[in-house]
Amino acid sequence: MNIHKGEHLLPGTRFDSDFYQQEGMLHCMNMPDLVSQEFDSTDANSAMKGKILELIRESDELKAERVGLSRKMDQMECYYEALVQELEENQRQMMGELQNLRNEHSTCIYTISATKAEMETMNQDMNKQIIKFFEEKHDLDSLNKDLERRAATAKAALKRARLNYSIAVDQLQKDLELLSSQVLSMYETNENLIKQAFSESSLPSFPEYEEMAQNQKLDSKESHAARLLQCQNQFHEEKKQNLDADIFLEDLKRSLFLQKGLYQKVEEEVYEVHLLNVYLDVFSKTLQETLLDASADFRLMKDKINKLTQQLELSTESKELLMLKLQDAINEVHNLKEYKNACDTKNYKCN
Questions:
Q1: C-alpha–C-alpha distance, residues 158 and 145, integer Å
Q2: Residues 175-189: pLDDT tens digits?
């Protein structure tokens, strides 16, 4: 009961910024009216003084503790303010990085869309080129088959022309040999007849043989005329045969000239077929190189898309990590604010 009364007598002993003066309190305790009213004996007064001194010491300790706690609260407040500023700065940096990631993500998505559209266009163009290539290859195969067939036909015609040419040449040689032998035999016959005629005209004339000679002369004239007529007939016949031979030779020459022209025409067609085959080979190789270049471009575009997809995945993962860090920082700031509010409430209650 005395302790409670002593506490009522000393207002401001807890969490007060002013220190109590021990002499003033002793002066209050030496007042005669108070001593006469509150204490009956000297022992009670001494006990009260000791209690008051103990309360003063406790008040000093509480004041010192309060000063240390206030200083610590100020330090904690400065620390938390710095921490909050740092977290806000980190949050701003994270928001900036997040915005950059969003922009990069949008750029990657746009690039991937454009690349996909370009790849789709390239696929369509490549499909069209492949279809066109197969159509042209089919046409080239058909043309090659037609040219091979024409070349085979031309070779067969050339072989037949050569065979006919060789047969005609052989027949012409045989006819010329036969004609030359006939002409030679006719010349020999005419020569023999002329020799015989000259020999008969150069015989000596004896008187006893005059009549006989005249008869023989008449017979020889008649035979000579008959032989001359026969020679003329043979000459006309040989001339006719020579004329027929000349006509045959002209026909044979004309046939040979036509066969030679046909042979040259076949050679020209074979040469054209060869040139066309060379052109088709070059065109086919060009188409193959174009297809290989398009395939290489397609592979490069596919690799580029894969790289962009990997970058997009990495940026998405980085975005998720930044979001997690941002959420952790927000939670930490929230916890620090709650802790600060709790400390402020506790400090207010202590005051």
A1: 19
A2: 777 777 777 777 777
Task: Using CB atoms within 10 Å of the CB of residue 329, give its burial: 0 to 12 exposed, 13 to 18 middle, 19+ buried.
Answer: middle
- Assigned token pair, 227: 């032989």
pLDDT given at position 257: 79
Of 35, 63, 37, 48, nearest to 7 by C-alpha is 48
Residue type, 29: M
pLDDT of 192-236, one tens digit each?
A: 777 776 676 554 444 444 455 455 555 555 655 566 566 666 656
Same domain, yes or no: 336 and 283: yes
Which CATH number does the domain housing residue 237 bear?
1.10.287
Question: Which structural domain, as residue segments, surrounds residue 98?
Answer: 90-200+215-350
Residues 137 and 231 in one domain: yes
pTM: 0.37
Helix (H, G, I), strand (E, B) or coil at 316: helix
Rg (CA), the chain: 72
> How many Cα neighbours within 13 Å face the side chain of 227?
16
Any domain includes 82: no
Q: Which band of pLDDT confidence, cut at 50, 70 and 90, is reported for residue 1?
A: very low
CA 66/CA 12 separation, integer angstroms: 13
